[in-house]
Amino acid sequence: MSSVLDDKASAERVTDLALNLTPDQQALLLARLHDNLQSLGQDPEHEAAWATEIERRVREVENGDAELIDHEVVMEQLRQRFRE
Fold first, then answer.
1. For residues 69 and 53, what is the distance between their CA atoms, to the nearest angstrom?
2. Element (H, E) at 4
3. Do 31 and 56 have their domain in common?
4. CA 42/CA 48 separation, integer angstroms
5. Is this prediction's pTM over 0.85?
6. Span 55-69, pLDDT tens digits
7. Do 53 and 33 have their domain in common?
8. What count of other Cβ atoms lies within 10 Å of the Cβ of residue 37?
9. Owning domain of residue 17
């Protein structure tokens, strides 16, 4: 049975190896890891709820009912909030 420290060391070794891959190899690895994470624990009810929420938000934007805030403004507001 592995300990948390063993797991962390293993993850660090894998990360070091990944960082030595070519950019194309890293992109492939990233895509495969992303696909794997996406497939873990997918709950059809959860996915359906998100699809409904996304559709609602798109309608709000299309109808002009949503207040859209520029990314830079949001980031500055967050920086100020977390400085306090």
1. 19
2. helix 4-19
3. no
4. 11
5. no
6. 999 999 999 999 999
7. no
8. 9
9. 1-40
Listed in order, strand segments (DSSP E) in 1-84 are none
Mean pLDDT of 12-16: 94
Matching residue, tokens 């306090």: 84
How far apart, in whole angstroms, are the C-alpha atoms of residue 43 and residue 70?
A: 32
pLDDT at residue 42 tops 90: no
64 DSSP 8-state letter: T
What count of residues does the chain have? 84
**Of 26, 4, 1, which Cα lies nearest the Cα of 15?**
26
Name residue 66's amino acid.
A
Residue with tokens 């359906």: 48
Contacts of the segment 14-22: beta carbons below 8 A, 24+ positions apart:
none
The reply to whether 4 and 17 lie within a common domain is: yes
